[in-house]
Amino acid sequence: MSDPGNTTANAVGAERSLGQLVASATAEMSALVHDEIALAKAQLRQDVKKAGISGGAFSAAGAVLIFSLPMLSFALAYGIQAWSGWHLSVCFLLSFAANVLLALLLGLIGMVFAKKAKRGRGPQKAVASAKETAAVLGNVKPHPRETGQPELTAGTRQDKITV
Fold it and tell me: Which long-range contacts (CB under 8 A, 24 or more apart) does 127-131 make?
């Protein structure tokens, strides 16, 4: 239990006026909004870094596939010729047709993943929290500034608080 005679804790709380309390709350809310924005930026940086690494890996895989495709085409053409006994030019045309079909299939898969990437939502929680905090700050009335700011009079009104 606290001692009712202990007036130091009561004096500290009593010394702060309503304006000072509102100013303190506004400053803390402003700091919170700045922290939420920093969190959203950090999440976006992390997502961009992962996407960059993924894109680099896919590019390397594509380069290896492109450089190995002629070998696959020759092997396929000679395999068809050995299996069927057809003329070698027909076998190379069939190998080319198989490569075109594979390219179309990979293009369709790429389009599907591109559409999914466009629907990405990013740092939803941080953005929602920042919007909620900004909405709360929008309802707070500003307090008179102590130094360097003109005081608000009865005829003036300040609508927004800049964060």
Answer: 127/40, 129/36, 130/33, 130/36, 130/37, 130/40
Give me the residue label for tokens 């076998």.
91
CA 40 – CA 62 distance, rounded (Å) = 33
Widest Cα–Cα separation across the chain: 109
Distance CA(131)–CA(40), nearest Å, equals 12
Q: What is the pLDDT of residues 79-130, one digit of tens each?
A: 999 999 999 999 999 999 998 998 899 889 988 888 877 776 666 777 777 7
The domain segmentation of the chain, as residue ranges, is 18-118
CA–CA gap between residue 97 and residue 163 (Å, rounded): 61
pTM for the whole structure: 0.39
User: 27 φ, ψ to 5°?
Assistant: -65, -40
- Distance separating alpha carbons of residues 88 and 124, to the nearest angstrom: 58
- Mention every residue, 6+ apart, whose C-beta is less than 8 A from residue 99: 69, 72, 73
